[in-house]
Amino acid sequence: MEHMIQHIESEQPLAIVFNKVISKITTLWIMTRPRIFDDIKGEEAAFKMMTYYQILLWEKWLHKVMQRLQEWTTTIDEYFDEFNGSWEYYALSKRLDFLNEFGGDDEDYNPDGSIKTTDITREQLKYHTVFSDLYHDCVDIVQDTKPTDLYPLINAMEANSRVSIIDILQKVSGKEITAYTMGDDGHLRPVTFADRELHKVSEMVEAHDYGLVIYTTALLMEQLTKGIETIAKSNTVFLDNHDLLHAIQCDAEAILALNFEDARHFKSNKTISNDKL
Description:
α1 (13-32) runs antiparallel to α2 (43-83) and α2 (43-83) packs across α9 (242-256). 60% of the residues lie in helices and 2% in strands. The protein is mostly helical. It has helices spanning 13-32, 43-83, 87-102, 122-125, 130-134, 151-161, 165-173, 193-232, 242-256, 264-268, and strands at 180-182, 188-190. It is built from ten helices and two strands; from the N terminus they run αααααααββααα.
């Protein structure tokens, strides 16, 4: 099946905004995607290809951010509800699940071939802690994306808001295009120049607001993942960390609900402002 840019299946406020962002870049995706071999030849084609693959990465980031935030809240719920907030109980259980599914080294087994369940060292548990599950120790688009990496997406949305489909059709055809809209009386009427300009202003304001959501989300995700990584790679991972995990869960829920002011890093970070965009 031909790849189509996908919307996020979620009713969370963040997902609703992200889906509107996806809608705003869909036209650019259609205009830049290659269809035949000639579409990848020449300098102009190279620029279009770079833009096309950027769009695919933007789409992936939007989807993965939603997925990661939901994973965090679900994992922390499981940690407290099923494992009583015990780091060791959680890690021992996850280790068993891992060995049953993937197998392990000789040190993981008794002479009779059964999995060892006693005298388990911290070294054997460090990759099975709750923080190891919250942090992905690999190349990862959520963890490896900086807020500035999303500037091209924000710029593309704002550029898209300044050009209408009617403008594009008129430029391609060289003819005046008449579009229609529903008037207050319930009847169709021609779209005027003033209508189009007012629509562009509205689109530009909306694109700017969505850009702030993208930038703020990226900044908060960067700071959250750095904090999680620090714990995952330190001896603090061998503590129950109740307060910290509750705080991470609250941060994730605040981002999903677009209540950025409730996130810890939003309160302490002075760089989140309209001046960044």
